[in-house]
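agent: user wants the structure for UDP-glucose 4-epimerase from Nocardioides perillae. delegating to structure tool.
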Amino acid sequence: MSWLVTGGAGYIGSHVVRALREAEMEVVVLDDLSTGFEQFLPPGVAFEHGSVLDAKLVDHTLHEHDVDGVIHVAGFKYAGVSVERPLHTYEQNVSAMVTLLKCMEAVGADKLVFSSSAATFGTPDVDLVTEETPTMPESPYGETKLIGEWMLRAAGAATGLKHTSLRYFNVVGSGTDDLFDASPHNLFPLVFDMLLRGDTPRINGDDYPTPDGTCVRDYIHVADLAQAHVAAAQRLASGESVERVYNLGSGGGTSVRQIMDTVREVTGIDFEPTIAPRRAGDPARIVASGELAARDLGWEMRHSLRDMVESAWRARQAAGAAYPAR
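agent: tool returned. relaying tokens verbatim.
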């Protein structure tokens, strides 16, 4: 029996794959390499190149590798871009989930961990987001993730699918120097690349009602996130009960100013970020509680902000001139 990781050659997925291997769990990867890299896969991991939308390939993968459960990481994850490409986002995140669930039902694979998103919440008007906070997504991306959760709930009721969804905010850092975040939309790679070009990073607004005036968000280390996915898979495999959804949050949050200060200390590049006007719709603070995940999945923030920046910077430096533009 093995676990399929969709999107397992991507930044998050590759960390999940390595965490599964460390837990001595059999794993196979399905990835179309639209944002992932085959070199992220450890030696010996079975790899199927293609899309979750390809029902024949998904069916073949499930059969060929005797897949018992799936960790579904693959998807189109850029909230801002999803507004410009809504149909593409729905195809990649909703149509693909339909294909996956149909194929799983056909072969009897009855366990699924869904890598969801805190974008399902939209802009909650609470100091601390919990699993009970109303979901009001504000982008096609957030909508598709919420629909994915709905589909799992419906499939669970209809077929007995065992499932849980993990919601999280900003994922940063690196668990090993050969795995890096190459996204053109994520804060850390954006800041690093600006500094390496000699440009000055920017803070959008420093007059928010927060301790240092800049926005406060949840940032979690990718290795901690990967461990949570593995813990959820292990709990499903053992037949233990799980909640329908878990938030993976810090409970405290980190400000943009704190990140910039830590980046300056870690990189040794002296800079003072420019202050730009606020971006429309940016709330002062969005932070989630991880108490429920701590209870059931052993979730905890094992890495400090400095750990996050240092590990991400090491991986970026290790990539060197070969660092790909996405």
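agent: one observation worth passing along. The chain has ten helices and 14 strands.
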